Automatic annotation (TrEMBL):
CC annotations in GO: nucleus
Native organism: Gloeophyllum trabeum (strain ATCC 11539 / FP-39264 / Madison 617) (Brown rot fungus)
Record's protein name: DUF602-domain-containing protein
One GO biological process term: DNA replication termination
Residue spans of biased composition, Polar residues class: 240-251
Pfam annotation, one family: Rtf2
Biased composition (Basic and acidic residues): 9-24, 201-216
Region (Disordered): 1-24, 152-175, 187-252, 265-289
Length: 301
């Protein structure tokens, strides 16, 4: 089928090429995710950090982003918007690929870049996206998932000291990192690197749940100080203080009113009948009503 006029492109031809393009795209994406910083898109160079969603960053690029969240534009917010500070990421302890060490000098740079820099310290599988890898949240050590699983399953098979414990207790028990000995939880501390979309949504849900639980405590302490101390004070003060303030005001105003009334009475008592007739006599309301008389009266009084 050489496009010589006699061939009509079949559906399969079109779909196949599309599928090939998609495959190539996927391969590129995989390579990009495992070899390049998710933020800067530069080649991953240690120190490398990973976020709770298993994304890989060059630490310097992430620092740049944290200092200026606009530094990588909209892409930065999409890729690392969930990272609030360096506390949210873990610096990874990676195992260098022996292949890059030995052959690196003799190879051309282009070839060398194709070689995965890191391997699983348990299985020596290369970290290139073909195998699922994960890091341990407490220590940042990176292993292939198969390596971790083979370890834990080997442990389970061992009828050792902890053999009598039930499977439930085994899950609750903290495992020890095979590389550095740090304790980690098998259920929550194994963070897959560059996870599948399903795994990522799980990780995101876990991250949000964790943040809703943990930082709320600290946030509550911080925010609750103003919230729990101030607003309750306001709440307490508004019902209690308002009545206390108001009676004070009422009392003082009442006192003022009564003193004024007394003065008025004294004045009235001392007033001549003529003046009284001007001001207080209800039989002459017209004079009382006039603004000028009232004004002159008060001025004279
Ligand atoms: Zn470790």
């Amino acid at each position: 089928m050489g496009n010589d006029g006699g061939s009509i492109p079949d559906r399969r031809d079109l779909v196949r090429t599309k599928a090939k393009a998609e495959q190539a795209d996927k391969a590129n994406q995989t390579r990009a995710r495992w070899f390049f910083c998710a933020l800067s898109k530069r080649r991953l160079e240690e120190p490398i950090v990973a976020c709770p969603l298993g994304r890989l960053f060059n630490k310097d690029a992430l620092l740049e982003f944290l200092l200026d969240r606009a530094s990588y534009g909209a892409d930065g917010a999409a890729v690392a918007g969930h990272i609030r500070s360096l506390k949210d990421v873990k610096e990874l302890k990676l195992t260098a690929n022996p292949a890059t060490k030995g052959k690196g000098k003799g190879r051309g740079e282009g070839e060398n870049e194709e070689t995965p820099k890191f391997v699983c310290p348990l299985t020596f599988k290369e970290m290139n996206g073909a195998q699922p890898f994960a890091y341990l949240a407490p220590c940042g050590c990176v292993f292939s998932l198969s390596g971790l699983k083979s370890l834990s399953s080997a442990k389970e098979k061992e009828p050792g000291k902890e053999g009598s414990t039930t499977p439930e207790k085994d899950e609750e028990q903290l495992e020890l990192c095979p590389q550095c000995g740090a304790k980690y939880s098998k259920s929550t501390d194994i963070i897959p690197l560059n996870p599948s979309p399903d795994d990522e949504s799980l990780l995101r849900a876990r991250m949000e749940a964790k943040r809703a639980a943990e930082p709320k405590k600290s946030k509550k302490r911080k925010a609750a100080d103003p919230e729990s101390s101030d607003p309750p004070k306001k709440k307490k003060s508004s019902p209690t203080a308002a009545p206390t303030v108001n009676p004070n005001i009422a009392a003082t105003s009442r006192a003022v009113v009564t003193s004024l009334a007394l003065e008025e009475a004294k004045r009235k008592a001392g007033m001549s009948d003529a003046v009284k007739s001007l001001y207080g006599d209800p039989s002459k309301p017209k004079q009382k009503e006039t603004f000028t008389t009232m004004g002159t009266f008060t001025r004279y009084a």
